[in-house]
Amino acid sequence: MTIVEIGLPKRLVELTLDGESVRVPEGATILDACTASGKSIPTLCYGDTLKPANACRVCMVEVEGSRTLVPSCSRKVEPGMVVRTDSERTQHSRKLVLELLGSATDLSTTPHVDEWMSACGADPSRFGPDAATKLQPTIVDNPLYVRDLGKCIMCYKCVDACGDQWQNTFAISVAGRGFDSRISTEFSTPLPESACVYCGNCIEVCPTGALSFKREYDKREDGTWDEEAQTQTTTICTFCGVGCNLTLHVQDNEIVKVTSPHESTVTHGNLCIKGRFGWQHVQNR
């Protein structure tokens, strides 16, 4: 007989969220409370499989009694807390952050960003063309994935996934300071010469498309990438006996990329090089 340890039940914490009473388990964040109550909070650096980085500042909310706005992705709820997610102050902050990001970064492949900007009236073009940072190169130095640095918002999610939170490869880190900050390999060596093991877990967590499958990049370049036409099928990887879950993204009867369900107890969204990239043989390429 197998005994499953379910742990002690968590005490519920009651707070007021935009005028409504909400009860969530102790230890939950404000973002968890918003999700549970059906409120959509924009966020870019938050990852459900990573520790909060508090880098993008898009998810800031107003907490009664707090001098400054607080990041909803990391601030834990407290009994009696009064939170406002859609006040004039939060809207102004969100608008400014999105405008600054949009004026300096290519957000064309960032999901939901257009609707976020529309909701808060953000207009990145108001800073003028001179506000844009210098054009960042697109690096294609391997056949598996592409680094489009012009889309990077320095959210650190790829560094965390490659580092001590998941892969423990430490192939990439933040180099430079200020406007020269960038995600880089050690001494800026080409990716094939670095410590990278091509697990692709950095691609899994990238929120803007700065990291993408080579196949996806090529299809976007020639204008044939169509997510609406793609189907997703979750199956089990056959390369070994671990039992990793694979979600196959198929367009025109062709696998165009592979992800993994974040809720999987085996992978938590992570894969190895075989699971992430070893599907070309299916199409006999």
TrEMBL record:
CDD domains in UniProt: fer2
SUPFAM superfamilies: 2Fe-2S ferredoxin-like (SSF54292), 4Fe-4S ferredoxins (SSF54862), Formate dehydrogenase/DMSO reductase, domains 1-3 (SSF53706)
InterPro entries: 2Fe-2S_ferredoxin-like_sf, 2Fe-2S_ferredoxin-type, 4Fe4S_Fe-S-bd, 4Fe4S_Fe_S_CS, Mopterin_OxRdtase_4Fe-4S_dom, MopterinOxRdtase_cofactor_BS, NADH_UbQ_OxRdtase_ferredoxin, PSI_iron-sulfur_center
Domain 4Fe-4S ferredoxin-type: 187-216
Any single Pfam family the record assigns to this protein: Molybdop_Fe4S4
Stored PROSITE patterns: 2FE2S_FER_2 (PS51085), 4FE4S_FER_1 (PS00198), 4FE4S_FER_2 (PS51379), 4FE4S_MOW_BIS_MGD (PS51669), MOLYBDOPTERIN_PROK_1 (PS00551)
PANTHER family in the cross-refs: HYDROGENASE SUBUNIT (PTHR24960:SF84), PHOTOSYSTEM I IRON-SULFUR CENTER-RELATED (PTHR24960)
Protein name from the UniProt record: 2Fe-2S iron-sulfur cluster-binding protein
Species annotation: Lentzea miocenica
Lineage: Bacteria, Bacillati, Actinomycetota, Actinomycetes, Pseudonocardiales
